[in-house]
# Entry
Amino acid sequence: MQALALQEKTSGPMHPSVAETLEDYAKLLRKVGMKRINWREVCKFGSGAAFVGTIANAYLWAYDISAPFPLSGYTIPPWLFGVRAIISALVFAVCVYVGYLRAPSRKPT
# Structure
């Protein structure tokens, strides 16, 4: 019964204090000069992170190494590392394209 009441409570509109906190955070970001995110730079960073993930997961898959999942007693099978390597490689490709290869957009001033 309590779970149902909690679900009804949380599925409604945002609590006023949360909304006020988010508005205050947005005001602070505008005050310090952060007006928009430079996605080109974010993707440059993400391409490096995705590349490292791809190499690590591909290594674990290629050498048939399974790894324990901490504090659970389960083991991650090597085939799952192969799937993760493929997904990381796709993310890497998208990030390289957006971060380095795509022409920068020209905004009218």
In short: The chain has two domains: 1-35, 37-109.
